[in-house]
Amino acid sequence: MKISILTPTYNRANLLENLYNSLIQNANYGVEIEWLIMDDGSTDNTKKIIEGFQKEKKISIQYYQQENQGKMVAINHLVSHATGDLIVECDSDDYFTKEAFEIIKKAWEENEERTDIYALCFLKYDAKGNNMGNEFSKVETTMFDLYFKEGENGEKALVYFAKIRKQYQYKIEKKERFSTEARMHHQMDEKYKIIGINQPIMICEYQEEGYTKNITKQFKENPYGYYEYFKEILQKDFKGVKFSKRLYVIKHYILFTTLTKMKNPVKNIKGMLNKLLVILLYVPGKVKTKMKFK
Question: Where are the domains of the chain?
């Protein structure tokens, strides 16, 4: 069994050692490891740090560079180079638990013959040992159902089956630099499912300049990708979707319809209740968006 770890990085030289050390800790479980790193135009000493790791020859490390184009483009490029049975995307401010690959190996051996699964989905903890989401209530589900019907609001660590993951890419609109991973997941959900496993494999330490902590900035700089994401959700069957999640989607759809100056917002929506909510909330939502993003 071979695992490909994909890491996009930009000026994170000071963080990469934590991830590197966690990979070394996991190198004793009979799992072949390759670490693929895409340097997204760093101006610090990232290259020097990685060259130091490579000289130690403890694991296979492939280092690539691109002009700054953002995390999603970096991962799209790395996926094409991955040669493992499994693919894990791991940001430079994340790292693996000590037994992560043993846990992954066991889950892979139990499910490797499945042709209807695109990922094994595990828990993700913060540096203080707190679960960053909820435990799974179902063993088999989809990412859409997990977040829109089963009450999940936090983060999960996905381990993709490489043969399926390589068939998909993150969609980038109008040369933006970010697109939510969920947009690709929902596309994969149409044909496949995930296996939920209530064990942590990844630790996350958010940085002040990171995507998640600067979500308003991400919204403003990448409105077209988010618009397409929420538009696609509103074309789905909402049976079983929690009302709070429905409102969340409607409000964000109006937000990005406003930011992108799209016309006829009701046209792209499926379901009378969703259409009615957009009509009722559109004007106050548009006013609120313009005030917030002026």
Answer: 2-210, 222-292
Residue 216: predicted pLDDT: 86
Report the alpha-carbon distance of residue 21 to residue 8 in Å, rounded.
Answer: 17
pTM for the complete prediction? 0.94
The token pair that represents 292 in the structure block:
């917030």
The model's pLDDT over 260-273, given as tens digits with 9 standing for 90+, comes to 999 999 988 999 99
* Tokens linked to 267: 């046209």
Question: Where are any strands of DSSP class E within 10-155?
Answer: 32-39, 60-65, 86-89, 94-96, 117-126, 140-141
* pLDDT tens profile 11-36: 999 999 999 999 999 998 999 999 99
Report the candidate in 35, 139, 144 with the shortest Cα–Cα distance to residue 90. 35
Q: Which CATH architecture has domain 2-210?
A: Alpha-Beta Complex (3.90)
CB 66 within 8 A of CB 74: yes
Contacts of 162 (CB under 8 A, 6+ apart): 4, 82, 84, 85, 86, 87
